[in-house]
């Protein structure tokens, strides 16, 4: 098949979940003999969408990437006030105001529709990643009816998801590739129909263990035990709550245990002598951190699929996850590879249980590894995915 | 139209609840429309122009519309219109007492009355208001 992916950012340096997810699928499809192209922006930073990559065509791991100039970066003066009006009001924002908010959020790609118009006929299926950003609503509206449209919504229940603008856009989609059953249920309940879809998931690469000494030396951890939290450090990701829970836990249970946050520091929690913020780490250091951790904590309130959970399970690590996020709680319930917590009491109890029983940690980690092996190797995921795309390609 | 620059001080003293409210929460230029709420004064036109200003020019502008509710259904109409446009910084204040009027006047960046406004389309009216508010 000839496939076109449309995504807001693209590149090996982009750490964002949906973008990494898109690049992984694009490269996997090339590896399976498909012709894959990507149309994306020149932006690297999702907070500004500043043009950092050069506009034009390039080759990334046999994927042809077309970069379009961002003609409207995030309008910081208007984005927050418009978000207040459009997302936080008791009243439904009129359509033109929703569109104004979408433009202010960015990245506006003024050349997207002309580019699609000139190139669309070359592709069997056009695949959009993430429902939220400008290229998807604008691109789907342009492509629908001309070529089969597949959407990976990467949706979770957040205020923008409730905007009628997105519901209308999703009704134009021919097929959905969902990451979890929870995401599928959420989207179906919102659009009120049952279009073609598949819970595809996201594949995981086989483990490439790195000695934990690499990370221990890099961050001065000595031989102390530690909990690991991977991903952006910010309130919406639950990092600040986790830091507060950990500080309360240490006040009640003194000892050598540490908490390591490895990821972009968007917000910084209260300083604590046993908490380390590493910032963004290399893949090698991440694997070393995973190898050495007692367990992985995933505290985020909003996820459509947690790739860090599957990564931890590949390494045989048990997981402790935010119970207020249906997706995380669902992932852990299906694997039996850890516990979900809601609030400090459950966090403390689960942590005590896990810390006090090495055999239990080992059993839970093994359950996670087994689940990934049976459900989330790339071969298994891509079989589901190719079947969905073949069905979608036949709709027009 | 009369434009003025707010000093942040209240003419009505520390006991004025409206002045205290504005001193605490006012976050940008304050446009004040003062006139009777009637069909003839067309207050909804000012609201539309204000919508253009906060959506496209300066999201920090705030609006107060006050005056006697001569035609109460016009007040309801304006109030509903403000909700439909999600104008969260528009304060529709029919039949204000003197304390409120004094506070609005004190904190206003620009005060307009129905007689001040040009008989123009909404976009032109917004441009006229913006030409004063931007300074």
Number of strands of chain B: 5
- The total count of helices of chain A amounts to 15
Major beta sheet, strand line-up of chain A: 3-4-2-1-5-6-7-8
> Helicity range of the residues of chain B?
40-55%
Give the strand line-up of the largest sheet of chain B.
1-5-2-3-4
Tell the overall outline of chain A. globular
Largest protein interface? Answer: A-B, 13 and 11 residues
Q: Would you list the SSEs of chain B in sequence order as H and E?
A: EHEHEHEHEH
Structural class of chain B: alpha/beta
Ends apart, CA distance between termini of chain A: 14 Å
Number of helices, counting only DSSP H or I runs of 4 residues or more of chain B: 5
Percent helix of chain A, as a range, is: 40-55%
- Which runs of chain A of at least 5 residues are low in confidence (pLDDT < 50)? none
End-to-end gap of chain B: 14 Å
Rg over CA atoms of chain B? 14 Å
Total count of strands of chain A: 14
Q: What do you see in this structure?
A:
The complex is a heterodimer of chains A (396) and B (135). In chain A, strand 6, helix 6 and strand 7 form a beta-alpha-beta unit. In chain A, helix 11 (307-314) packs across helix 14. By secondary structure, chain A is of the alpha/beta class. In chain A, the strands form two sheets. An eight-stranded mixed beta sheet of chain A has the order 3-4-2-1-5-6-7-8, sandwiched between helices. A six-stranded parallel beta sheet of chain A has the order 11-10-9-12-13-14, with helices on both faces. Chain A has helices at residues 17-31, 76-87, 95-105, 112-119, 135-143, 164-170, 181-191, 213-219, 239-252, 283-292, 307-314, 326-335, 344-355, 358-375, 378-393, and strands at 2-6, 35-41, 56-60, 63-68, 125-129, 149-152, 175-178, 196-199, 226-230, 258-262, 275-279, 295-298, 319-322, 338-341. With 135 residues, chain B is of the alpha/beta class. Helices cover 44% and strands 16% of the residues of chain B. Chain B is globular. Chain B has helices at 17-25, 43-57, 72-84, 98-107, 122-133; strands at residues 2-3, 30-34, 62-67, 90-94, 110-112. In chain B, strands 1-5-2-3-4 form a five-stranded mixed beta sheet, sandwiched between helices. Classes of the chains: A alpha/beta (396), B alpha/beta (135). Chain A binds chain B through residues 77-78, 81-82, 84-86, 89, 91, 93-94, 97, 100, and chain B through 54-56, 59-60, 83-88.
């Amino acid at each position: 098949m000839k496939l076109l992916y449309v995504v807001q950012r693209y590149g090996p340096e982009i750490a964002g979940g949906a973008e990494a997810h898109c690049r992984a699928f694009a490269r996997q499809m090339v590896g399976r003999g498909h012709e894959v192209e990507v149309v994306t922006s020149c932006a690297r930073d999702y907070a500004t969408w500043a043009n950092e990559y050069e506009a034009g065509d390039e080759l990334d791991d046999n994927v042809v990437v077309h970069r379009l100039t961002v003609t409207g970066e995030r309008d910081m003066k208007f984005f927050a006030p418009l978000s207040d009006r459009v997302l936080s009001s008791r009243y439904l924002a009129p359509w033109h105001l929703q569109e104004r908010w979408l433009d202010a959020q960015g990245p506006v790609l003024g050349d997207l529709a002309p580019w699609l118009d000139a190139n669309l006929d070359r592709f069997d299926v056009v695949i959009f990643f993430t429902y939220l950003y400008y290229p998807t609503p604008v691109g789907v509206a342009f492509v629908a009816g001309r070529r089969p449209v597949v959407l990976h919504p990467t949706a979770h229940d957040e205020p923008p998801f409730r905007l009628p603008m997105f519901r209308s856009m999703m009704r134009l989609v021919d097929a959905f590739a969902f990451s979890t059953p929870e995401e599928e249920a959420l989207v179906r309940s919102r659009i009120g129909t049952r279009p073609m879809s598949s819970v595809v998931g996201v594949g995981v690469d086989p483990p490439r263990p790195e000695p934990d000494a690499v990370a221990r030396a890099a961050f001065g951890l000595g031989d102390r035990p530690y909990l690991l939290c991977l991903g952006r450090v910010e309130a919406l990701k639950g990092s600040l709550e986790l830091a507060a829970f950990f500080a309360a836990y240490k006040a009640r249970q003194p000892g050598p245990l540490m908490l390591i946050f490895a990821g972009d520091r968007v917000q910084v929690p209260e300083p604590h002598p046993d908490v380390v913020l590493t910032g963004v780490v290399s893949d090698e250091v991440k694997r070393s951190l995973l190898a050495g951790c007692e367990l992985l904590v995933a505290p985020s309130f909003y996820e459509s699929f947690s790739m860090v959970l599957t990564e931890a399970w590949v390494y045989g690590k048990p997981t402790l996850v935010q119970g207020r996020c249906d997706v995380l709680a669902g992932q852990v319930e299906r694997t039996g590879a850890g516990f979900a917590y809601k609030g400090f009491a459950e966090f403390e109890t689960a942590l005590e249980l896990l810390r006090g029983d090495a055999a239990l940690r080992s059993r839970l980690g093994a359950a996670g590894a087994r689940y990934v092996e049976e459900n989330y190797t790339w071969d298994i995921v891509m079989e589901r995915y190719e079947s969905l795309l073949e069905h979608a390609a036949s709709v027009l | 139209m009369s434009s003025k620059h707010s000093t942040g001080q209240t003419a009505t003293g520390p006991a004025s609840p409206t002045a205290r409210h504005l001193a605490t929460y006012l976050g940008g230029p304050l446009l004040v429309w003062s006139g009777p709420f009637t069909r003839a004064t067309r207050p909804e036109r000012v609201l539309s122009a204000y919508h253009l200003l906060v959506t496209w020019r300066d999201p920090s502008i705030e609006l107060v519309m006050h005056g006697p509710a001569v035609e109460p259904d016009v007040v309801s109409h304006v109030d509903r219109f403000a909700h439909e446009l999600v104008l969260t910084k528009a304060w529709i204040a029919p039949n204000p007492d003197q304390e409120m009027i004094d506070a609005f006047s004190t904190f206003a960046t620009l005060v307009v009355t129905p007689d001040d406004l040009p008989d123009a389309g909404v976009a032109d009216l917004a441009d006229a208001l913006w030409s004063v508010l931007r300074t």
